[in-house]
Amino acid sequence: MTATDTAGDERLLRRSVWRKILGRPELGSVVGAGAVFLFFSVVAGSFLQPSSLSTVLYAASTIGIMAVPVALLMIGGEFDLSAGVLVTTSALVSSMFSYQMTANVWVGVLVSLLVTVAIGAFNGFMLTRTKLPSFIITLGTFLMLTGLNLGFTKLISGTVSTKSIADMEGFESAKKLFASQLTIGSVNLKVTILWWFALVAIATWILLRTRFGNWIFAVGGEADAARAVGVPVFKTKIGLYMGVAFAAWVSGQHLLFSFDVVQSGEGVGNELIYIIAAVIGGCLITGGYGSAIGSAVGAFIFGMTSKGIVYAEWNPDWFKFFLGAMLLLATLLNAWVRKRAEATA
Amino acid sequence: MTTNPETAPDATHGRTALVELDDVSKYYGNIRALEGVSLEVHAGEITCVLGDNGAGKSTLIKIIAGLHRHDAGTFRIEGEDVSLSNPREALDRGIATVYQDLAVVPLMPVWRNFFLGSEPTKGKGPFRRLDVDKMRTTTRAELLRMGIDLRDVDQPIGTLSGGERQCVAIARAVYFGAKVLVLDEPTAALGVKQSGVVLKYVAAARDAGLGVVLITHNPHHAYLVGDRFVLLKRGTMTGSHLRSDITLDELTRQMAGGSELEELSHELQRAPAPGHLGGPAEKE
């Protein structure tokens, strides 16, 4: 036996560092991001300026904050189509609650946190109780929230947007937390970038180093097996939906405190962008595989593309086409790299 | 059929059975999945449950594993009446179940699978984290102890062979202090050699003092290791035997449905091969 003790390692030598890198879920997206970065560096002269990069990072962070929990949810085997409008809902709730109750905006912000997380829990609860596909459940929530956003806003403020809350108590401090800027040297960095990085770090920690993370992979990979060995499948999934809701709350507060009014129709369509960022980042659409860092790279690709077109001074009418083509290419590259990695593993 | 289930192997031992089912039934709506089944599992013994497809083997497993509650009869664990509501409860009572196809999460590394659902942690509060080093080294050591030498505990468990996966699952159950090991068709999808390897681990678990429930439709595998045999057919128990009471031939005959098999072999001999399968030229 002593011989085989080390024999395991002798065969291990075949698995080089390079092979380990190839086996990472986010590899394809990193290669894709490098390609996009190089492309815009060449075609858009101002792309490499620090101020441009901070704008790109900002654009990436607004998507990235949501892409992180959406990626975790996808690893857990589920979708959330309501994530986009939930951001708007969250902003509307804190704005209108603050305005109507004439309280400190912080009260509105906290009420919004409760409401948003409750909606997330509702998604998870409905999913685990009814056992319907999450696509259907969250499509229902998506439509209901879209209607509620518009209906309530018109009912309360008479128009499709909320009233300004900029002169209310607590606005400045809340703005500091959710929508301020940090100046480092000559570069202005939005605080959402910090939120984004923090969420990526926390999500990575959870995913790779906690029991909950182990359960996320398990419920997405093979829910029946996970349940059979004692993993609380339902609680894990509900927790993931509440995670998405928490990030929606952060995004929603950013939306509110950077513009101080909220358009009730916003957010529709963003849920797909979050999902796509997660998929580019290497999440398997069927669950059980992926990473939080990958979702960040996916969001970064989005940021670079949307702002790169502006810096390249192209007609923005072409933006959507270009975005779609970029996505397709990055995802194909991702799939190709992964296939090669698996073939040689 | 040949033995009265109520009196057969019971009370042959003075000690309490680890698991005892007495006249247990399970219905799904108006479907009778299981009726009047009794069995005993003792420490250091292997109880084989034999039956064809649809005999109720899976239902029986699900009751013991805590996935379903039984509807009638008594289910005792170490002498205590129980009605398990979830798999966690069964695990806490020392019953570990290894399923044929859903024993593991294929995309996850071996070491994560090994500890899934019972992960050791270290640290406090927000820094409570998986004890990754312990998980890796324990997985490697436990598998080696059972004679499984893995190249890499980081490889996805889906890359292991079927037999190896079964062995990992068995090693996992033994490590977590299971008293009763329930194995669902561990050899069903395996070749002869791999089946032998798995049966060896089953015997090793028995020798370690565990009570084993081995579900199978292969009487040859059952007879190699079994101490007690329970035969199921269409949801009812058709026989319950101690090893000393029955021969392999008799077991095979009962298992295959006895006279039905003779009739079948008769039919097969005489039936001419259909034209579209190559006319009268019979294969094998």
Characteristic terms for this protein:
heterodimer; A: mainly alpha; ABC transporter involved in vitamin B12 uptake, BtuC; two-stranded antiparallel ribbon; 2% strand; B: 284 residues; alpha/beta; Rossmann fold; 9 helices; globular; cell inner membrane (chain A); transport (chain A)
Describe this entry's structure for a reader.
The complex is a heterodimer of chains A (345) and B (284). Chain A has 345 residues and is an all-alpha fold. Chain A has one domain: ABC transporter involved in vitamin B12 uptake, BtuC (Orthogonal Bundle). Chain A is 75% helix and 2% strand. Chain A contains 15 helices and 2 strands. Chain A has helices at 2-12, 17-22, 27-43, 50-75, 83-101, 105-130, 134-157, 171-179, 191-209, 211-221, 223-228, 233-259, 270-280, 292-311, 319-344, and strands at 181-184, 187-190. A two-stranded antiparallel ribbon of chain A has the order 1-2. In chain A, helix 5 packs across helix 12. Chain A starts with a helix and ends with a helix. The model of chain A is unreliable at 1-13 (pLDDT under 50). With 284 residues, chain B is α/β, with parallel strands linked by helices. Chain B has one domain: Rossmann fold. In chain B, strands 6-9-10-3-11-12 form a 6-stranded mixed β-sheet, with helices on both faces. A 4-stranded antiparallel β-sheet of chain B has the order 2-1-4-5, covered by helices on one side. A two-stranded antiparallel sheet of chain B has the order 7-8. The two termini of chain B are 34 Å apart. In chain B, 44% of the residues are buried. Residues 1-12 of chain B have low confidence and may be disordered. The interface between A and B is medium-sized, with 31 and 32 residues.
